[in-house]
Amino acid sequence: MALRPSLLAAAALSFAGALATSPGTPEPLRYDRDVRAILSDRCFRCHGPDAGKRQAELRLDVAESATALRDGKWAIVPGDPEQSELLRRVSSTDEDVRMPPPKSGRRPLSDEERDIVRRWIAEGARKWNDANVLVMSLKRTDPDTARAIVDAWLAVEAPDEDERENIAKLR
Known about the structure:
The structure is a single chain. By secondary structure, this protein is mainly alpha-helical. It folds into two domains: 31-122, no CATH class; 131-170, no CATH class. The protein is 51% helix and 2% strand. It is built from nine helices and two strands; from the N terminus they run ααααββααααα. It has a two-stranded antiparallel ribbon with strand order 1-2.
């Protein structure tokens, strides 16, 4: 008896879904939880919120800046770590290219830290502005506006347990 293509496709999708949620599959990385501490320690001195110290007009704490085209390159190309200048720089052994530069006094990223950054970029550099950041920015907003913003955010993001707790505080 031949299986119909639709039945075969459904079985394949079911199997793929089971693999994606299996206990051995690592949880997707999040900027706020997994990546920001690494970049904050090594990169934000020159590529963070302080406009007076910022180099190359690059902010790695803001998605729009980190993913913008600059001089024919992108610091971060979501989904493509090999095209991401950030990963090339933090992985380089050339002292003229490596970030953070030796003269900064900051130690280079460890293999584990580079792997975290690589994996986060490969996963699409998602969850950049997660609910924890959203909650902090909405604390000074009137309640009706905050609820509308949270509802719009929920329409495009799937919050995890920590994020749901923070969202509940806004309601």
